[in-house]
Amino acid sequence: MKKVIIITGASSGIGKQTALQLIKEGHIVYGAARRLDKMQELATAGGHILEMDVTNHEQVKSAIQLVKDEQKRIDVLINNAGFAIWGAVEDTSYEEARRQFEVNIFGLAEVTKAVLPTMRNQKSGTIINVSSIGGKIYSPLGAWYHATKHALEGWSDCLRLEVQQFGIDVVIVEPGAIKTEFGDVLNENFASSEKGSYAGLAKTMKKVTENAYDEGNYSPPDVIANTISKAIKAAEPKTRYAAGKMAAQTLFFRRYFPDRMFDKTIMRMVKNMEKKS
């Protein structure tokens, strides 16, 4: 069944790959992102593109209104826009931390709030929030990023209970290691801790991150695109889908082993990387 779909963060990586796949499957897809020039491939493939910064509330409202005016309905919202800052809590400015939450939580919430009246009125809809296995685990220097993803997990659970009475499903997708621009951008954000008390840890964690994106240590973004497509097609989608390199194994380990054991495992990985560097 052809559906009207909006996907944020559609200018690269998971967002672009998912948009292209859903267009190919015959859906009416609106890709939204700040960089229109990076979404021309979607337009060429038969999709629609929207300039949208999720932190600009007026821009969000006007973009969603455009879709409603043109299609008269919205069947699926895929909240995919997001980024990560990396650094010690002590070194990270509140300005940087607020920006992390503005994009990953408050911007996502604004887009969701903009589509909910339409979905309620039509008594159907699916909201897919792209989280991360980082919403269930943690790592040194990732406090603010992990905080947003942990928050997104709980936020989505609450939303699911609120909107199920209107026939709306809320789904969380938890990618593992996926080859996108995410890793490159993440590594640029170690700068705040590359000098001072946490310099050694920052140097090591940067190498850990780089190693995660070496050939064979990640999955391509179409793994997540396939997972999202599966959720859209399902008559009763799962509340959570984990996919991508090491996603299932990591979540299993986190679920069944106590915090201290998980702490030791994470820091053992860090120490092993220190020895190799």
TrEMBL record:
The keyword Nucleotide-binding does not apply. The keyword Oxidoreductase applies. Keywords: Oxidoreductase. CDD domains: 17beta-HSD-like_SDR_c (cd05374). Gene3D superfamilies: NAD(P)-binding Rossmann-like Domain. Coiled coil: none annotated. PANTHER family: SHORT CHAIN DEHYDROGENASE, SHORT-CHAIN DEHYDROGENASE_REDUCTASE FAMILY PROTEIN. Belongs to the short-chain dehydrogenases/reductases (SDR) family. This is Oxidoreductase. It comes from Agaribacillus aureus.
